[in-house]
Amino acid sequence: MLTGALSMRDELPFPDKVLQTLHNLCATAADLARRGDEVARLMQKDPAEIEGILDRYKSEGFAESFFDNEGKKRYYLNARGIIKVCSLFT
């Protein structure tokens, strides 16, 4: 086994799991963006907690967000976020 490398998803810190879930949902462009409550439902977590994590990733430059025509906030990974997710297991 490689030391220092993560081998299972469960070993990731929870915020990284949120980012990975967004990636697994293919939310990698504005037209593929997902609502925080969608991610929360899949992860069986509180939507406010998930949105807080996603907002932090946005402020750190790994995600983007916008309000859709229903007034719901949607999130997607930008290029830096995609690279971050891909680097989680290397």
Structure description:
This protein is of the alpha+beta class and 90 residues long. It has a single domain (12-87), classed as Winged helix-like DNA-binding domain superfamily/Winged helix DNA-binding domain (Arc Repressor Mutant, subunit A, Orthogonal Bundle), CATH 1.10.10. It has four helices and three strands, in the order αβααββα. It has a three-stranded antiparallel beta sheet with strand order 1-3-2. The relative contact order is 0.20.
List its salient traits.
disordered N terminus, 13% strand, 90 residues, three-stranded antiparallel beta sheet, globular, Arc Repressor Mutant, subunit A, alpha+beta
For this structure, what is the CATH homologous superfamily?
Winged helix-like DNA-binding domain superfamily/Winged helix DNA-binding domain
CATH architecture: Orthogonal Bundle
Using the CA coordinates, give the radius of gyration. Answer: 13 Å
Q: How many separate structural domains?
A: 1
Please report which band the strand proportion falls in: under 5%, 5-15%, 15-25%, 25-35%, 35-45% or over 45%.
5-15%
Distance between the termini: 13 Å
| Coarse shape | globular
- List low-pLDDT spans: 1-9
CATH topology-level fold name: Arc Repressor Mutant, subunit A
- Which class in CATH terms? Mainly Alpha
Mean pLDDT over the full residue set: 90
What is the strand and helix layout of this fold?
Layout: H1 14-24, E1 34-35, H2 36-43, H3 47-59, E2 63-67, E3 73-77, H4 79-87
Antiparallel strand pairs: 1-3, 2-3
Helix pairs in contact: 2-3
Question: TL;DR?
Answer:
With 90 residues, the protein is of the alpha+beta class.
